[in-house]
Design brief:
Blueprint lengths: L9 E6 L11 E6 L3 E2 L5 H16 L14 E7 L8 H10 L7 E10 L2 E10 L13 E4 L5 E4 L5 E3 L3 E2 L5 H5 L5 E3 L6 E5 L5 E5 L3 E5 L5 E5 L10 H12 L3 H12 L6 H17 L5 H10 L4 H14 L2 H11 L8 H24 L1
Helix pairs in contact: 1-4, 4-5, 5-6, 6-7, 7-8, 8-9, 9-10
């Protein structure tokens, strides 16, 4: 059992040992903010929904098998006492205010009643604290002949997931007056108690999580499927956690599930293809097939264009890179530093080739 510090109303979940004190640069934290209730009386529903999403994301954590990722810790935090973010800017502020945990991502959202059902609308904000940090601007870096480097980072920092239509099976657990039930074990009977908002998780299975409540009482929380259809939120969030922890095979596993999900929005699939390309490049595999699929979905994306250019640089395809720069010029401002650096590289390469040709004569 992992021993974890527990501030009031916070859940701290880790993969790997967690040192006491503030989060370090070798830790990736996803913070689940309180979800907003679309109407009065739904506050408990919003709180329980966000708690279940947090537990489901935590289930995807694992210790990375790669050498570079083995020392990077993963953590998911949840709390219910703050004001719920209502926009991406508020989610950014929420994450910036979390000085103790320094989250790389904030999952937030809102719930509301629609007819006889309930809808959950989730969002993910990917923060920037330090360009050199895992969620910074340098996910994939290549060294140019001049000694300079060219990098690409997170494709999209404001992610909108497909709304979740709560299933009838999950509604009693989420909307009941008693709250999330506590069970004696994952398959055991009810203990006639509720979990509340102050607990720690120390072990999770596919359908339940073991928790510790106040006074060190143990129990289990069932993790109902929020929707009858498998959504992309958990796989995408867990996959991104694995990307930021350099767990390339693990990231490939989860992002392949995202792109195979017929309900996932196109923008989510584009980003997932790019993350799959990154995982392939970092694993010494060819990222080309994944980048091509992203380009098929969105040929006008600047992120896709940058990954295309990186792939040509990786394979030394200068002629193709030159054609890409000509086609992609309208996507960039005249003084864009990234685009200019690629152009300088091509110009210098041509000059070097011309000089070499003259010497050969």
């Amino acid at each position: 059992m992992r021993k974890l510090a527990r501030p009031l109303t916070w859940v701290l979940l880790c993969a790997g040992l967690l040192a006491a004190g503030a989060a370090s640069s070798q830790e990736v934290n996803l913070a689940v903010a309180p979800f907003a209730a679309g109407s009065a009386g739904n506050e408990a529903l919003a709180r329980r929904t966000s708690a279940i999403l947090m537990l489901q994301i935590w289930q995807t954590l694992r210790v990375p098998p790669t050498q570079e990722g083995a020392q990077v810790k993963g953590r998911v935090t949840w709390e219910s006492s703050s004001s719920a973010p209502m926009s991406f800017s508020q989610a950014q502020a929420y994450g910036a205010a979390a000085k103790d945990s320094e989250p790389a991502m904030v999952l937030w959202g809102r719930t509301w009643r629609y007819g006889t059902g309930i809808v959950v609308e989730p969002f993910l904000s990917i923060l920037v604290r330090n360009p050199a940090a895992p969620a910074g601007a340098k996910l994939w870096t290549l060294k140019l002949p001049s000694g300079e480097t060219l990098s690409v980072g997170i494709p999209r920092r404001q992610v909108e997931f497909e709304p979740i239509i709560l299933s009838a099976q999950s509604l009693p657990e989420l909307t009941g007056a008693s709250g999330l039930e506590r069970y004696a074990s994952a398959t055991g009977t009810r203990t006639r108690a509720v979990v509340g908002d102050d607990f720690r998780v120390f072990e999770a299975g596919p359908e339940a999580a073991k928790v510790i409540l106040r006074k060190d009482r143990e129990g289990a929380v069932r993790l109902p499927s929020l929707s009858q259809e498998h959504g992309e939120l958990v796989d995408f969030s867990g996959g991104l956690m694995r990307i930021l922890r350099s767990d390339w095979p693990g990231a490939q596993q989860l992002f392949e599930r995202v792109v195979k999900n017929e309900h996932a929005p196109s923008a989510i699939k584009v980003d997932s293809y790019l993350y799959l390309a990154l995982a392939a490049a970092k694993s010494n595999a060819d990222p080309s097939p994944w980048i091509s699929k992203a380009y098929e979905l969105d040929p006008y994306s600047r992120a896709v264009f940058q990954y295309l250019c990186m792939n040509q640089l990786l394979h030394g395809r200068k002629d193709t890179l030159a054609q890409l720069l000509t086609a992609g010029r309208p996507l960039y401002a005249q003084d864009d530093p990234w685009f200019r650096k690629v152009g300088v590289y091509l110009t210098e390469s041509r000059q070097d080739s011309t000089a070499s040709s003259r010497r050969a004569r």
